[in-house]
Design brief:
Elements: E1 2-3, E2 6-8, E3 11-13, E4 18-22, E5 29-34, H1 38-55, H2 60-76, H3 78-88, H4 93-113, E6 121-122, E7 129-137, E8 140-144, H5 152-163, E9 167-171, H6 177-190, E10 197-199, H7 204-213, E11 219-223, H8 226-235, E12 240-244, E13 249-253, H9 259-271, E14 281-287, H10 288-304, H11 323-339, E15 343-346, E16 361-364, H12 371-374, E17 381-387, H13 390-397, E18 407-409, H14 413-422, E19 429-430, E20 464-472
Parallel strand pairs: 1-5, 8-9, 8-11, 9-10, 11-12, 13-14, 13-18, 14-17, 16-17, 18-19
Antiparallel strand pairs: 2-3, 4-5, 6-7, 7-20, 15-16
Helix pairs in contact: 1-7, 2-4, 2-6, 3-4, 4-5, 9-10, 13-14
The structure holds NADP nicotinamide-adenine-dinucleotide phosphate (NAP) and magnesium ion.
């Protein structure tokens, strides 16, 4: 079993106490990590502050070269890392390799930003005056990530933070510190200078909260649950804060849709990553006319999905992340059956044996106000709701506090545009599932999902401050709004 360390001020260090990361398939310990505390965070922040002076002045194309090397090393290690992701996080190997690929794409994309980082030039209302904007780094950034994309999400934060010239204190999820540890090792091997990235492992209360409340952390980038997001916003003070929170993402299926395609999209959206994606499809909102046909096909296919070891080719659905996640799913299935009175079509149980597995589960006759239609379960549970008119389907889609991803299956362009305009979400897919973002497009939500964009050009906004520059070469005092 690996005994891993934190990386603070350019050194790999331990702590007095430790915690373990568990393989969710075997329930066995995978690796041990130091249980960092407030003092470790403080040391990391001080080191990052010190490193900021030089790193923020390093020309961005040179910073970009280092990010390209990170991408190269990730590519070289892709298979190995993919297996670690599958083993520690539990997603099936093809998806785990996709997690690593997303990180490769992200480091390449933001590496190239080293030669752009564009500002705007514009006109002035006065003669002999020049106006433009430039991007400046923010300072020490605290990055706090979840476990469901254990390599990709840290990459989404690290790459833009670094290319903009910031230094970083990174706390990974305590469920997937090993994936994060391997990524940090690659950053160092690629030539990220000492103390530019600091890696502190440990609990939310000891490490996470210390980062959030540290007065010298200027910028926070958080991905995780809504409750944690609310705590962070209430306690971060006047830091620049980025939030990517939960979702309850709908797929609307019209009566004119290609049903086979819709079934495939719903299966992939609901049960891919065992439903543990912020963009997972947890609600299918289906036109009454085609609901029976769609459900027959969907349930038949869902029943055939094989749970098991995510490394094996024969597995379709890996385990949930931990025991708590299984308990949460069980609780919601009971709520669906008892309190809500929805109809359980398949799943609703754990398979026998070791591991945090749960069978793909589908509820029919779900009403918009039921808890299983509104609350994020974060497991392989799909609620099916019915509609007759598109405006009603959109109303149902919007009847949640989140607004991350959404989708409509239709062959009618007018329906598609009505959905694009009507659904309150950061992403809308037409004739495709709710999942599958590309790194050069902005990603993020609305409403209680948070309002930040990660990835794409807009991903730079979270990690840079825009400075407006006025350059007056008239040689006299000119007054905007006042001089003729
Ligand atoms: P979580 O419980 O909120 O934890 C996320 C991270 O925050 C972990 O590193 C956790 O540390 C840390 N943390 C918890 N409380 C904290 C606090 N008070 N101060 C500072 N740090 C704190 O979420 P999760 O269960 O890992 O992730 C699942 C959630 O993430 C779901 O709601 C999902 O929808 C959301 N998500 C959103 C997106 C998006 O882009 N919108 C993407 C992926 C996931 P420990 O691990 O040590 O507890
Ligand atoms: Mg684990």
């Amino acid at each position: 079993m690996a005994d891993c360390r934190m990386y603070i001020d350019g050194k790999w260090i331990g702590a007095k106490t430790s915690f373990e990361t568990i393989n969710p398939t075997t329930e066995k310990v995978l690796a041990r990590f130091p249980k960092g505390n407030e003092k470790d965070v403080d040391r990391a922040v001080k080191a990052a502050q010190k490193a900021f002076k030089k790193w923020s002045k390093t020309p961005p194309p040179i910073r970009g070269q280092i990010l390209f090397r990170v991408a190269e090393l990730l590519r070289k290690n892709k298979k190995r890392l993919g297996r670690i992701v599958a083993t520690e996080m539990g997603k099936v190997l093809p998806e785990a390799l996709g997690d690593v690929q997303e990180a490769i794409d992200t480091f390449e994309y933001f590496g190239a930003e080293g030669r752009r980082l564009f500002g705007n030039t514009t006109t002035s209302e006065l003669k002999d005056k020049f106006a433009m904007t430039i991007r400046r780094p923010v300072g020490v950034c605290g990055l706090v990530s979840p476990w469901n994309f254990p390599v990709a999400i840290p990459a989404w934060k690290l790459a833009p933070a670094l290319i903009c010239g910031n230094t970083v204190v990174f706390k990974p999820s305590s469920d997937t510190p090993l994936c994060a540890h391997e990524l940090v090792k690659i950053l160092i091997e690629a030539g990220v200078p000492p103390s530019v990235v600091n890696f502190v492992t440990g609990s939310a209360s000891d490490v996470g909260q210390a980062i959030v409340t540290h007065p010298e952390v200027e910028c926070l980038s958080f991905t995780g649950s809504k409750d944690t997001g609310e705590w962070i916003v209430a306690n971060a003070g006047l830091k620049k804060v980025g939030m990517e929170l939960g979702g309850k993402n709908p797929i609307i299926v019209m009566d004119d849709a290609d049903l086979e395609l819709a079934v495939e999209g719903i299966l992939w959206g609901a049960f891919g990553t065992t439903g543990q994606r912020c963009t997972a499809c947890s609600r299918a909102i289906v036109h009454r006319k085609i609901k029976d046909r769609l459900l027959n096909a969907l349930v038949e296919k869902a029943k055939k999905l094989r749970t098991g070891n995510p490394i094996l080719k024969t597995t379709d659905v890996g385990p949930l992340i931990n025991e708590n996640a299984v308990e949460k799913v069980e609780r919601y299935v009971e709520i669906g059956k008892d309190e809500d009175g929805a109809k359980l079509l398949c799943g609703g149980e754990k398979p026998k044996g070791t591991g945090y597995f749960y069978r793909p589960t589908i509820f029919d006759d779900v009403e918009p106000d039921m808890r299983i239609a509104r609350e994020e379960i974060f497991g392989p549970v799909l609620s099916v709701l019915e509609f007759e008119r598109l405006d009603k389907a959109i109303e149902i889609a919007n009847n949640i506090e989140y607004g991350l991803s959404s989708s409509i299956y239709t062959k009618n362009v007018n329906n598609a545009f009505k959905a694009i305009e009507g659904i309150d979400a950061g992403l809308t897919y037409i004739n495709s599932s709710t999942i599958g973002s590309e790194v050069h497009l902005p990603f993020g939500g609305v409403k209680k999902t948070g309002h930040t964009k990660e990835a794409g050009i807009m991903g730079l906004d979270e990690f840079s401050n825009v400075k407006t520059v006025y350059f007056d070469y008239s040689g006299k005092l000119q007054k905007a709004q006042i001089d003729d």
